[in-house]
Design goal:
The structure holds 2 protein chains of 2 kinds. Chain A is built from 12 helices and 2 strands, in the order H-H-E-E-H-H-H-H-H-H-H-H-H-H. Chain A has helices at about 1-50, 50-55, 70-100, 105-120, 120-145, 170-195, 195-205, 210-220, 225-240, 240-245, 265-270, 280-314; strands at about 60, 65. The longest helix of chain A is centred in the N-terminal third of the chain and has 48 residues, at about 1-50. Chain B is α/β, with parallel strands linked by helices. Classes of the chains: A mainly alpha, B alpha/beta. The interface of A and B includes residues 198, 201, 202 and 209 of A.
Chain lengths: ~325, ~260
């Protein structure tokens, strides 16, 4: 009788173990199968252009059936960098305000607003970006900048654009920055609150002001957390599709100005995938494969960073 | 006995509230200069709360309220005009746990100096060496000043924190159970250090450890439930206290 019960227990334990193992290994299987299928579909494009040549080819021509990753890749990297440059100071400011300055009743309101910002579907950002933000930027920031900095010698042309509509690498960076602010702000807020009170009190006890405590105690203490938050945001910015497809302009031409429309890997995929056949289709798979690898690398960097940070603190 | 001593800090009818809870009740006492004054009493008696009034550490938290006066250099530091930041440069604090900042040994001390406006590198270097020597840490760390302070032992970290407090040349240092997280050897080093330091600074120390109070302090105040029960020369408190509560506490019959 007792033995029977024990056997039952052992069986359920084994089943439970198997289920958890199955669920966890499934994620790995899915990822590996994705990489394999992306790579497999890319083979014709790799054979035709060569991997390295493909990355450095600027051309994107249906007529000649020649496709190069240089512009979409550059667009992806530039919009992501632009977005992070704008988002990091804003997100850190928000996190500092929430944790150190803001009165309690406002804290929840602002925190919820930021979480909501992260929950908005990206196509809504795209629509808002295209119909509201892009014309607004064109009429204000772009106008002001091109009539001032734009008149300077040498660098001036980088702030002039012959394209109308306000869709540009600049607008895309702004939309993208709004989308990644919540990620950085939320992670920064969490790591800021982990700074021990006693450490902050020690700094106050030496005669530090609030700003000095934030600058020299809270920020260094949270460095690793904030860094991994930024890298996670970078991964998100690299892969963002719908919003960017709306506001980037989708133009395969030379980029002369921050106000020029351009292209990114994701927007090429979103726009061309439906109709692509043959080499073009394979090319799109190769672009997707490159993006996948880029995201994989950023994630790996984030992991290494946070692990190294942990061993530093011990 | 020591009435001729100059007074460095003085409280007059000091009350302190956490929200509506009165945590320090009507305390009037004087702290003579260049002495070690111990605050003792059972947990929750208000000794740490009282200590934290002296550098207005309570200001950092909401819902706290002071009443009465704390006079430092004949100024009421509880008044609105007092700049808490400047006050804390003159009244330093050392905490229950060592609190090195996440930076190197020398940067830890340079940090306090920079806050005070001392940014000249040569002067900083001299002051760092002086402070580390005063805190009896120089010999142990002089060859690794640029190493992270977290690599030091607990006792060394606490002495570093003391050096950091000393470097800005305060006139008072508040110690909040500075040895409660340390082993006996580190504890005795810190105690020795505190006894030496009183020639340059005045010291107020909160301690749970009555032997410690007896060993290092000149005067001892016994607090109970937020009230000052007895305040006198340490020897008297520990041998012939006037109050029965004090006697029961120092002989270990409650607390």
């Amino acid at each position: 009788m007792k033995n029977k019960k024990r056997n039952q227990k052992n069986t359920s334990n084994a089943v439970f173990k198997f289920l958890t193992f199955f669920a966890s290994s499934l994620t790995i299987v899915i990822i590996i199968s994705m990489i394999i299928s992306l790579f497999y579909q890319s083979i014709p494009a790799i054979q035709k252009f060569g991997f390295v040549d493909f990355i450095f080819t600027r051309e994107w021509s249906f007529n000649k059936d020649i496709y190069g990753a240089f512009r979409p890749l550059a667009g992806t990297i530039l919009t992501s960098i632009g977005a992070l440059l704008l988002a990091i100071p804003i997100a850190l400011g928000i996190a500092i305000f929430i944790t150190e300055i803001c009165p309690a009743f406002l804290r929840n309101i602002i925190s919820s607003a930021i979480e909501l910002l992260a929950a908005i579907p990206s196509i809504i950002y795209g629509m808002w970006g295209l119909f509201t933000l892009a014309p607004l930027i064109e009429g204000t920031v772009q106008k002001a900048v091109s009539s001032t900095i734009g008149l300077l010698p040498v660098i001036g042309p980088m702030f002039q654009s012959e394209y109308a509509g306000g869709v540009s690498i600049f607008t895309a960076s702004i939309v993208l920055s709004i989308m990644v602010v919540p990620f950085i702000a939320a992670i920064a807020r969490d790591t800021f609150t982990q700074t021990p009170d006693i450490l902050k009190e020690s700094a106050y006890g030496l005669g530090a002001t609030k700003w000095e405590v934030v600058r020299y105690i809270v920020l260094p203490y949270s460095k690793t957390g904030v860094q991994s938050g930024i890298i996670i945001a970078a991964g998100r910015a690299l892969g963002e599709t719908m919003a960017i497809a709306y506001v980037i302009g989708n133009r395969h031409g030379p980029l002369n100005s921050i106000f020029d429309p351009y292209t990114t890997i994701t927007s090429v995929l979103a726009n061309e995938f439906n109709e692509a056949v043959g080499t073009q289709l394979s090319t799109l798979f190769l672009l997707a494969f490159i993006l996948f690898i880029a995201n994989f690398i950023t994630l790996a960097i984030a992991k290494i960073y946070s692990r190294r940070g942990l061993s530093n603190e011990l | 006995m020591k009435t001729e001593h100059e007074i460095v800090l003085e409280t007059k009818d000091l009350n302190f509230y956490y929200g509506k809870k009165l945590a320090v009740k009507n305390i009037t006492m004087q702290f003579p200069k260049n002495m070690v004054i111990a605050l003792i009493g059972p947990s929750g008696c208000g000794k740490t709360t009282l200590l934290r009034c002296f550098n207005r550490m309570h200001d950092l938290y909401k819902g706290t309220k002071y009443e009465g006066e704390v006079l430092f250099n004949n100024e009421n530091i509880l008044s609105k005009e007092t700049d808490a930041t400047q006050l804390r440069e003159q009244i330093g604090m050392v905490f229950q746990k060592p609190t090195p900042f996440p930076m190197s040994i020398s940067e830890n001390i340079a940090y306090g100096l920079s806050l005070k406006g001392i940014k000249n590198k040569t002067e900083q270097k001299d002051r760092i060496e002086k402070a580390l020597k005063e805190a009896a840490l120089w010999d142990e760390v002089h060859d690794r000043l640029d190493k992270n302070a977290n690599g030091l032992s607990g006792g060394q970290q606490q002495r570093l924190v003391i050096a950091r407090a000393l470097a800005v040349e305060p006139s008072v240092i508040l110690f909040d159970e500075p040895t409660s997280a340390l082993d006996p050897i580190s504890t005795s080093k810190i105690e020795e250090l505190i006894s030496e330091l009183k020639s340059t600074v005045s010291i107020i120390i909160v301690t749970h450890n009555m032997q410690q109070a007896a060993r290092i302090s000149d005067k001892t105040a016994f607090l109970y439930l937020g009230e000052l029960i007895e305040y006198n020369i340490t020897d008297k408190i520990f041998t012939t206290p006037d109050n029965e509560l004090t006697e029961r506490y120092v002989t270990g019959r409650f607390g």
